[in-house]
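Q: What residues go here?
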């Protein structure tokens, strides 16, 4: 009798286990095969789709640095956007790249995840260019979303670039840094080529107190593929484009961020009319919030998940 009772208890406990997921797949999105990495400890958890920055900067190789805790709370989905990462390797030609094309791709990925995990809505998060894309989707398709996490987003990038360039020229002029002034004197906004972009980003990195993590050749190669799209996105002013967003929006902002200026994001947040909104400052960070303060980043996403659920 005792053995039979133990077997019954064991079977009941096993039946209650919820299984997780960890898979890398290609899905037909926007007419091409696009790469997704889906990982979570329970398929019943909320779905969180990340939009990487750049454009073009796949986060697959370093996502573990800022997602290790999130896999226990979400089904986390990383997406190699067209012409990025494994999606680029799978497709030789993905056609003309425009903001509208990436928005349409994002909506298709969300639709796939809604069907796959039987959700009416999912969460999205994006960093930099990805933050711009996330806010664009939130502004135009709020009915698809449980919430949007915008991390150092491009909000009004032309103004951001102009202000930062002017401030760098003034400060470095006061410091009599002739090399910096000579390099920055070649820069125009919007950027015309990779040389201008390299000079600008090099000195932003140095003024934020970090060593540039890129070479001149890398920026040159990136610019040939991505600069036109970046400049198109930079011409958007989300302050006027989306003064109202009809889903929860949370901003994560690096206090020292000069690349997507923190003050511009703060200005947008203050005037934004949203169902729920919150802004969190990362005092130790510049533009790279997820990797500069990964523990705080994940803790705040978990905290906001509970706050949004309670609304």
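A:
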């Amino acid at each position: 009798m005792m053995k039979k009772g133990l077997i019954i208890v064991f079977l009941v406990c096993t039946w209650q286990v919820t299984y997780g997921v960890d898979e890398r797949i290609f899905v037909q999105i926007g007419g091409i095969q696009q790469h997704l990495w889906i990982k979570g400890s329970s398929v019943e958890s909320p779905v969180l789709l990340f939009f990487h920055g750049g454009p073009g900067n796949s986060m697959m190789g370093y996502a573990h640095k800022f997602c290790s805790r999130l896999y226990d709370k979400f089904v986390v989905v990383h997406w190699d956007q067209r012409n990025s990462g494994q999606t680029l390797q799978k497709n030789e030609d993905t056609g003309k790249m425009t903001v509208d094309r990436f928005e349409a791709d994002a909506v298709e990925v969300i639709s796939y995840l809604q069907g796959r995990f039987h959700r009416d809505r999912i969460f999205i998060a994006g960093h930099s260019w990805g933050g711009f894309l996330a806010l664009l989707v939130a502004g135009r398709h709020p009915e698809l979303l449980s919430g949007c996490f915008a991390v150092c987003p491009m909000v009004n990038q032309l103004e951001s670039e102009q202000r930062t360039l002017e401030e760098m020229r003034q400060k470095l002029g006061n410091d009599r840094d002739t090399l910096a002034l000579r390099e920055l004197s070649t820069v125009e906004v919007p950027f015309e080529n990779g040389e201008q972009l390299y000079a600008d980003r090099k000195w932003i990195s140095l003024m934020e107190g970090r060593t540039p993590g890129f070479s001149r050749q890398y920026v040159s190669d990136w610019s040939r593929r991505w600069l036109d799209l970046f400049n198109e996105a930079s011409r958007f002013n989300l302050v006027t484009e989306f003064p109202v967003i009809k889903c929860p929006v949370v901003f994560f902002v690096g206090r020292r961020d000069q690349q997507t200026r923190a003050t511009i994001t703060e200005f947008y947040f203050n005037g934004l009319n949203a169902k729920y909104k919150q802004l969190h400052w990362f005092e130790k960070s510049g533009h790279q919030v997820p990797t500069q303060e990964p523990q705080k980043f994940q803790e705040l996403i978990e905290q906001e998940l509970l706050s949004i659920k309670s609304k």
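A: Context that may help when evaluating the design: The first strand starts at residue 21 and ends at 29. The chain is about 50% helix and 20% strand.
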